Amino acid sequence: MALVISEKAMSIDESTAARVAKLARIKVEPDALPALANEFNTILGFIEQLSEVDVDNVEPMTSVTPQRLKRRTDGVTDGDQQPKVLANAPDAREGFFAVPKVVE
User: Fold this and answer.
1) CB 9 within 8 A of CB 48
2) Would you state the pLDDT for residue 9?
3) Exposed (0-12), middle (13-18) or buried (19+): which is 12, by Cβ within 10 Å?
4) pTM beyond 0.85
């Protein structure tokens, strides 16, 4: 795997693109490897641009708009769904799922 690193930017060659495709279990025809390597290099260029942005005084955020999640009381209930849930069971007895014995 040849990863060419220059002073300015990182560059991925065709053999590295083939190795990445193999590791990702993606079948890439040999004639498509130059385009794949070019796409990887484009992505690395975008990452390099992001590293140039000064984010020292920027607070981390989870959304671009301020949001507050709706809160509800944390109460435990049984759901009152037992008949509906057990209707899906192939075998139910006395309000529980019945399963075959698997260990002697």
Assistant:
1) yes
2) 58
3) buried
4) no
Provide the sign of the torsion angle of the four alpha carbons 38, 43, 49, 52, taken in this order.
negative
Gap between the Cα atoms of 29 and 14, Å rounded: 11
Tens-place pLDDT, residues 30-78? 999 999 999 999 999 999 998 888 888 888 887 788 778 888 888 888 7
d(CA 2, CA 82): 60
- Strands 96-97 and 3-5 come out as unpaired
Contact between 17 and 1 (Cβ < 8 Å):
no
| pLDDT reported for residue 3 | 45
E-state strands within 1-104: 3-5, 10-12, 92-93, 96-97
Find tokens 């990452």 and name the residue: 47
Task: Give the whole-number percent of the chain exceeding pLDDT 70.
Answer: 91
Q: CATH number of 3-51: 1.10.20, 2.60.40, 2.70.50, 1.10.357?
A: 1.10.20
